[in-house]
Write a structure and sequence with these properties.
The protein is an all-beta fold and about 375 residues long. The chain is about 0% helix and about 50% strand. The two termini are about 50 Å apart.
């Protein structure tokens, strides 16, 4: 589209953001000068938007016509990180704040007109900061706990969520930021793999125990939580385990369309709760629902013991299920939906042979009075 570093040198472009149908990025020109460029996707529309005062700038963000960025100052005995801003002119370029020599800057982003970032010291402690472009308005909004690290950032409609974990403790603080103030919710066991954002709500799992904060719940089990990115709106969804207790786990939470999927099981550890098989839960989500009061499951199925092997297969398929005392029906359909075979029995291991059938894709329905499975088979001789 355009050679911004004329010749054989690399411009080393770095994405900045998008604004008014332009894409912004930083790049070096043939004189090794770093600038902010903008482009509308055409050669004539790719031009310098602002010249930067240093070549070692990073974290460039455009906020309301002003570019914010960090610069490492090597002039002191120890390097320092500095926050700067510019409108692209020398007169409009100024230092906002100089940080201590041990500070490291990471996870830079903009939110509601604020320049936000995390500051760590020696890599073992961290705090969340935001800046309005003034030194007085560049402040740390969380306590700089020792031995903490930043978890993932979750963006909601009007709030930002992130968590800081304390190393060796197995606990975290889940923070909410609305662009002005910050609040936090204590989490006993928050795992970044166990979250999902659906609509305007955040879903996650945590261990409930009144000893570790609010909201207090009667059972100290793992629970599925929902949050509207406020402390008041962060609460356990519903007891879904045997005898009113939750299942340990509430793992692998995924949002797809208007549904929340998650697997749960009870490992018998907490309060001597009975062992349970791992189950798949599917619940329909709508933005105006309070799932704590209205959690309707579309299915609740054991998923730990069902298997088909081999698949693909050249002849025989084995179906193994956890059901051993119920009548099981196996129906096989071709790719056009025509049933080609049906087998019934009480067997734990059922077999379908494709020797008399042509190669191709087949569909199966494996069902009993209490549960069912459907899926695809590949026959290739």
């Amino acid at each position: 589209m355009k050679d911004v570093n004329v010749g054989s040198g690399s411009a080393t472009p770095v994405y900045v953001g998008e604004h008014e149908n332009y894409l912004y990025f930083t790049a070096f020109d043939e004189l090794n000068k770093l600038s902010v460029w903008k482009t509308n996707g055409k050669s004539y529309g790719t031009v310098i938007a602002a010249e930067l005062p240093f070549n070692n700038c990073y974290g460039v963000k455009l906020i309301y016509g002003t570019y914010y960025f960090f610069h490492t100052d090597y002039n002191d005995y120890y390097p320092h990180e500095e926050l700067w801003k510019t409108n692209g002119t020398p007169a409009g370029t100024s230092l906002v704040k100089k940080f201590d020599e041990d500070a490291g800057i990471y996870e830079i982003f903009s939110f509601k007109g604020k320049y936000c970032f995390f500051v760590s010291y020696f890599g073992y402690s961290g705090s969340f900061w935001s800046s309005d472009g003034t030194e007085a308005g560049t402040v740390g909004l969380t306590v700089n706990y020792p031995d903490t690290y930043l978890g993932k950032l979750y963006s909601g409609k009007d709030h930002l969520a992130f968590y800081l974990s304390v190393a060796g403790v197995g606990a975290s603080n889940l923070f909410y930021y609305d662009g002005n103030s910050i609040s936090n919710f204590w989490l006993q066991n928050f795992d970044p793999r166990k979250f999902a954002i659906a609509g305007d709500k955040l879903f996650f799992s945590d261990h409930i125990d009144a000893e570790y904060g609010y909201p207090a719940e009667p059972d100290n089990y793992y629970q599925l939580f929902q949050s509207d990115f406020t402390i008041q709106g962060t609460k356990a969804v519903k007891n879904i385990g045997s005898g009113g207790g939750s299942f340990a786990g509430s793992d692998d939470i995924t949002a797809a369309g208007e549904k929340i999927f998650f697997t749960t099981y009870n490992d018998g550890v907490y309060n001597n709760t009975p062992d349970e098989k791992k189950r798949l839960y599917v619940c329909k989500y709508k933005s105006n629902y309070d799932l704590r009061e209205d959690l309707s499951f579309n299915s609740q199925e054991d998923i730990s013991e069902f298997s088909i092997f081999p698949n693909p297969s050249s002849s025989v398929f084995h179906f193994q299920s956890p059901v051993s005392d119920e009548l099981v029906t196996l129906q096989i359909f071709d790719s056009k939906g025509k049933q080609v075979e049906s087998i019934s029995g009480n067997a734990h291991d059922m077999i379908w042979s494709g020797e008399k059938h042509e190669d191709g894709i087949y569909l199966y329905k494996y069902s009993s009075p209490s549960w069912n499975r459907t899926g695809k088979l590949i026959l290739s001789k």
